[in-house]
Predict the structure.
Amino acid sequence: MQDSGFVESLRGKRVAVVGLGISNLPLIDFLLAHGARVTGRDKKTRDALGATAIALEQKGVRLCLGEGYLEALDESVIFRSPGLRPDLPQFCEAMQKGAILTSEMELFLDLTPATVLGITGSDGKTTTTTLTGLFLTEECKKTARKRVYVGGNLGHPLLPAVEEMTEEDYAVIELSSFQLQALKRSPVRAAITNVTPNHLNWHTDMEEYIKAKANIYLHAPNTALVANAENAITRELAQASGRPVTYFSSKKDTYQAFGSLLRDGDRAVYLRKGKILLWDGETEREMLDTSLILLPGMHNVENYMTAIALTDGLVSAESIRAVAERFRGVPHRLEPVRTVDGVLYYNSSIDSSPTRTAAALSALRERPIVICGGCDKKIPFDSLAEALCKRAKAVVLTGATATAIRQALDAYREKTGAELPIYTDPDFTRAVMLARSVAKPGDTVLLSPACTSFDAFKNFEERGDTFKQIVQSF
């Protein structure tokens, strides 16, 4: 762990940890180990926290729970959960009185001596993060010296391991816009897979969402940036960044095709005749034959391209090929569940945006029966309606957004004359059963909600696991 006067200054100091979720519980242990006097604050009641509340109090943590959990917020340092906006009035008032507002991720980035590679984006960041970690792990097997840590928004806090990390190690972190909002540290290598409208129920507007994504590189002057050349927002961010950029594109087949986008020092990753190629400014190298990729869909080829660009110079083509030949994907991402009565069921619960559902649909050869709907993120469903009408055999709508998606579908069908059977059931279990009743032998049923899960589940993993349990019960 790097020397940090900030950590030493925590000894004996009153510190608030706001939000007692996955990342903040290990944070509390870390703070206690370094002598801080910790108050845990959470909107959940003591009954809702259950054993967690008892365990925290046994460690000496003072608890402030329930609706008034932010009252008398007078601790010197405040660690906020990523799901809480940094501009809450209580936070602003505390900072005006001299409090420091920070986060578990910012503390990790401040302390780790490891080389940090960060990945963000509206879609594809989890698979890209996983691939990046696998590439580096495969390469590190050759020396048995360096270690690779993978975590962040994946649900694996890395702070507990920070004291064992060295300068020879790698830390690969997935970063959500919630984590990036107000972050004042950046990785030494950063990738933005794409940026499309997302989480607009949390961010004030699209501009704020884009600015949050930009924090992945803004606070380190020499951050090497990887950006999607085919996404207008990431392209513009990269052009204005003033940093060396490696652009990737699945639609360009030579580095010359990037044209004026490439400046001195920039690099390019592109696709030609089924092969991923990398141009380093002087020479072109073949990195991977896409026929080796076991994951379906062009979006997964792009995930590979992003990870290849991000690890340029750190891993060999041989290590990349070794990963491709065995990696079968991350759970809840176009995950085959089982075939029942001649119907194949896929769990793609991670698909929490219209663009992700469109990518899942394009990855399947057949036209599936799609289960859509969930929590409303205040993003339009026009593009989802188009993708469903063009690529789905039927759609079953459920959850809080069922009506809004239906309205978008009706508008698209009226405008284009497209035909698509639409079924609705607000209950998730009944919706899955409805999809089963509609399906015929040879069909595919795809859970691809295009929305977050918070209307009925605590996260997309619980939603996907519930889907799999229902299907396994057939």
The longest strand covers residues 37-42. The two ends are 51 Å apart (CA to CA). The chain has three domains: 5-102, 107-324, 335-472. Residues 125-140 form the longest helix (16 residues).
